[in-house]
Amino acid sequence: MLLCSVLEISSNKACCDQNVYDTTSYTCCNQTLQPLTYGKDDSKCCGTQIYNKTSKTCCNDFQVVDNGTDCLIQSCSLRTCSKNGLRVCFTRAHQGDWLHGNCFDPNKQVCCKSSLFNKDSDDTECCEGVGIYNKSSHFCCNNQILSKADNPNLACCKGDGMEAVEGKVYNKLENICCNNALQPLTYGMGNTGCCGAATYNIQTRQCCGGQVLGLDTPCCGNAVLGDGQICCDNKPTLKRRPDDDTCCTGYSIGQVTTYNKHREKVMTKL
């Protein structure tokens, strides 16, 4: 098309993004030319698309719905969404704009594939790149939705970030998922445990702080107990006396002390 100039604009000519167009055949929707598909009187713009105003409605998030259908979503800022306890869905209409999107109630709707969907139940979730699904009967993994009934031995090995979205499908009879890494069931199903990304025999070994150790090694929470320590509230605590065998926690003051229950009686204000 010709570039716009004052001389070219006439009663049947107009300018759209520096291009001249015939107003009897086209209209300009957000700097995008669209044909008057439904005639000059009934063709209206909704964002960059054209719709028939006699049968459709344009919502403020630039989605076209049938007349009589409620526009369930509202365009607003990220700050407004958070302030009202809502979440924001960045739809196609807001691509490139990370400050504005569509506010929605996560108890009633789910944001998926840059669109909002009504929740059928609390089990409705999004499988990115695919669509919504029911997590009680299906699972999402590696951009596919699989039926639990049809695949009883399959599961998804997921980690953080993008891995949580993509995941890896595996057979539970053959492998175990350890820290987003698939490992063989070396010690058999029910006896193979995870310690970080490694496996161990839970009948003969233990995992302590990411290390596989013998069952006789004293472990407290995620740490190995050192000499002169006792385990208090899952934390290694230095003994007050060498023969102390009991912990006493003063929750009101946040202090822990140790004592020998056969020798002392400790009084503390909890």
UniProtKB/TrEMBL annotation:
It comes from the Eukaryota. Residues 9-89, 102-223 form the Galaxin-like repeats domain. InterPro entries: Galaxin-like (IPR055284), Galaxin_dom (IPR056601). Pfam families: Galaxin_repeat (PF24748). This is Galaxin.
